[in-house]
Hints:
Helices cover 41% and strands 18% of the residues. It is built from eleven helices and eleven strands. The strands form two sheets. Strands 1, 2, 3, 4, 5 and 11 form a six-stranded mixed beta sheet that branches. A five-stranded mixed beta sheet has the order 8-7-9-6-10, sandwiched between helices. The two termini are 21 Å apart.
Amino acid sequence: MKLRIGFSPCPNDTFIFDALVHNHIDTGNFQFEPVLEDVETLNQWAQEGKLDITKLSFPAFFSARNHYQLIDAGSALGKGVGPLLVTKEKCSLSAIDVSQRKVLLPGSNTTAHLLFSLAFPTATKKEFIVFSEIEEALLQNNQLLGVLIHENRFTYDRKGLTKIMDLGNYWEERFKVPIPLGGIAIKRSYAQPLKKQLEEWIRNSLAYSWANYPLLSLFVQSHAQEMEEEIMRKHIELYVNEYTHSLGQEGKHAIQVLFEKYLALQKQSPTDPPLSLFV
């Protein structure tokens, strides 16, 4: 049986799923067809239930929870991993009225957007573009603000941009839990044994990649948007951690906290009886 699995071309995702999609581990009668797309495209597809299994931002998962359940392996959570609010202007947050500035964000369904909205609820001048285009747009206009994610965390300062707020630190200090960035979800319609088996396969795929680290496979390198290997490794080491192996109680609690904030911003109430978010 073939299952379509969507994830981003970022090094953390290709590192996790390399062995799974290239038959380096035993998956029995199941094969996995990789679909690599920008995370916001995957977020939008999730609303339609397009893929069997998909990486997606947590706000997108919350809105697509009728279609999907979150599995325990493969997620991106952590401390010190949050999105950054930056600008070309050399200034501090106290010198800027964020609500009066145009802000570039990497998709309306991203955790970056949700964290920005929590920190700046009155900011409405938002434009959503592909995350990899934000850095260059900021370099062309010092009046813009932008929220950076993924590898741009490691490159913005040497390109002349200034961090004015770490939205991840804001979240951690206010809510005292790790930052839930993105997870791996499977369609609710699949049987529970397959869902649990998928968790084990992802852990085995991850173990395969770690066993060969610090070597990076051609699959990781070829999709990394011309990143230096040093940046790829920093990316992997930041976003692939203990929560990737298993959410644990702390990770699940953090996701539940984010879900409550999402519902409040959307002015929604939990369903009764509530749908289980987790496999």
